[in-house]
Amino acid sequence: MATATTGREAPTLQRRLRSLPVLFTALALLVFVFYQFILGGLVQPIQDFFDSWLPLSSLNQCLIWATLAVGLNIVVGYAGLLDLGYVAFWAIGGYVAAWLMSSFFSQWSVNIFGSAPPGLEAGIHINFWLVLPIGAAVCALAGVIIGAPTLRLKSDYLALVTLGFGEIIPEIFRNGEDVNGFNLTNGVKGIDPIDPIPMGPFHLFPGVPANLGPFDNTYKFLVYALLTAVAIFISLRIRVGRLGRAWLAIREDELAASMMGVPLMKTKLAAYAVGAAIGGLGGVAYATLTSGVIPDSFQFANSIILLAMVVLGGMGNVWGVLLGALVLEWVNSTGLQQFGASFNSGFGTDINFPSYNFLIFGVLLIVMMLFRREGLLPEARTRQVLQEPERGELEAVGADLEGTPV
Amino acid sequence: MTLTQSPIETAEARPPLRAGQLVTRVLGGGLLLVVALWVVVQAVQHPNQFANAMVTGINNGALYALIALGYTLVYGIIELINFSHGDLFMLSTVLAAFVIVTTFGATTTNWAAAGVLGIALVVVMAGAAGLNVAAERLAYRRLRRAPKLAPLITAVGLSFVYQFVGVYTNGSAQKSWDTILGDQGFTVGGVTIHWSTVVIIAVTVPLLLLMTWMVTATRQGKAMRATAQDQDAARLMGIDVDRTIAFTFGLGGALAGAAGVLYMESSGITRWDVGFRLGLFAFTAAVLGGIGNLNGAVLGGVLIGIIESMNGSLGLGQKWGQTVIFTVLIVLMVFKPEGILGRPTQEKV
């Protein structure tokens, strides 16, 4: 690999900036300023429009899904490992937050810069900003444990095994209310409430609350946007480095990559661990958004919707994935419902639009695979690989292309 | 592997075991021994429950075998895990309920109902086969030369579409139906055997024999095996590869259709998400037996059925069902990814 780097020029400032989520951060700040300071002063119809079509609660959800999708993109888009059980890491992150930021384990009393609401001081309360790295680390560890025995498998087996894990982990949380008499997960009821997000020194600014309550959506938006930016930053930086190039090499031809000296297991495990860690961040954030976790919210469908986001946006391209996640989650949480409501009132029909989301996601996956495999915002490299000419065309001119699936 | 066996591979010399492989083998053997011991202990301690669990296991196992064959047939011929197969099975249960109960109103035991069951089998098998062939024609065929991820993601998408159809036709809650045979059965030495179990065996065994005959003794079967080995060579020998692959999809779909009718008649329940769970169990069964291997799929199906019912009545309990089955899948992948009857494959360059 050493020879591969010698030919590259030293990164210019412009190039360095390109691998930072500058534009995203600026946009997020703009949105924050708009909702916090400007929207309240506008005329009522505009306020109503934003309240129904672009509510902040929906944007916050979009950001969390985007964080998770960016994490999944590392596994699926960069390393080419189809993971159908990504929801497992989401769940683990969520439960880590629930364990460390609630009164659930009231038999113990731990408080590390915690933000327990008054009256709920018992239990473990660790500061949100500390729980984030803990959740990420736990998920990375889980990713390595899950990956170590299974990453040797061929791609399609791997997909099924990850799916199995995605089913096992929520089942453990669902049935974990009595582990030898110890209530680990509170069963189907889940764990709530979870401590609010503390703003630390920032609450000294005028108007910033010390802890973000359920209605401080603008500040939550800022926090979740920060997390998404971190996920994007990690993706972009690793992508241009040695590890990222090794991932792409594995994605395109595993055998050739290993011949060139890429350690397959180590590199794949790294993809799993990094992807899982970002999943953990998303999980912790999700737990604070809903202020509680229940096992039934971590369903297989979520893994597939995340996959649809990655595929729709463009596997491997972080900006594409970000776009795909924001659009799909907005459609899922607000768009479809609002569109249905306007359509129904406009045409006097009574169609339940949100119930069509399975159809929409399914058809979307199929159509994208058939007609635009590289996604809406494809990475230049992915386009080359995925749009290789059909074999038949080349064979017609006499090319010999062996290496067929046997 | 019945479908993908190539004579060259069998002639290759086996490399000596490495230390890691030895450890894996000892661990795997030890694990197997522990499980076997547990089964023997249970059989001695609770003989009655054990026998009942065996009967239930064979009942479910026959259904898993029928579904697993659909996975293994398709995987054997184009190396695609047809993810939507479980949901095809789910649609078959819904269609079976529509034909048997809604159309003919057959809910009591009599000869007319037996005829209706026969009609339902034919209709649902044809419907499921047609749907599977259509999916192949419209989606998978265009992706045959695409990177492997593409058809797999398409199958996942198709599975979502099927589930939507399931919700749309069957509702988002489960529906209970009166079945032809109901709960009737007979008792042999304290073990209850439902008539529906007998019907399942009576339908499954001839179907399996018929299919084995088709694959091993007919021209079409020969074409299937040839296509599985080498598509290009098969094409050069004058085999219509597209038609052969479509036929394989049809065969798998028909078996899923039969499983759907039998499941609906034995459990009396249709629900939209049953295909996901049972499909995964059946896939595990196919892998357990050795994917691509027809006998393996049947063996795996029965084994998974028995493991599931043993776990339900004697093991950890039904709520851990998925965990147990998927643990079997993962342990299997670690110790013996080629399955019980499969042959280890080398990666081709």
Estimate the mean pLDDT confidence of chain B. 85
Oligomer: heterodimer
Helix content of chain A: 55-70%
Largest sheet of chain B: 2 strands, antiparallel
Gyration radius of chain B (Cα, Å) is: 21 Å
Counting H and I runs of at least 4 residues, what is the number of helices of chain B? 13
Structural summary, described in words:
The complex is a heterodimer of chains A (406) and B (349). Chain A has 406 residues and is mainly alpha-helical. Chain A has one domain (17-384): Orthogonal Bundle (ABC transporter involved in vitamin B12 uptake, BtuC). Chain A has 17 helices and five strands. Chain A has a three-stranded mixed β-sheet. In chain A, strands 4-5 form a two-stranded antiparallel sheet. Chain B has a domain at 48-182 and 191-274. Chain B has helices at 7-11, 19-45, 47-78, 85-103, 111-138, 149-170, 195-217, 219-229, 231-236, 241-267, 274-289, 294-313, 321-335; strands at 175-176, 185-188, 191-194, 269-270. In chain B, a hairpin with a 2-residue loop joins strand 2 and strand 3 (191-194). The relative contact order of chain B is 0.19. Residues 4-12 of chain B have low confidence and may be disordered. The interface between A and B is large, with 51 and 52 residues.
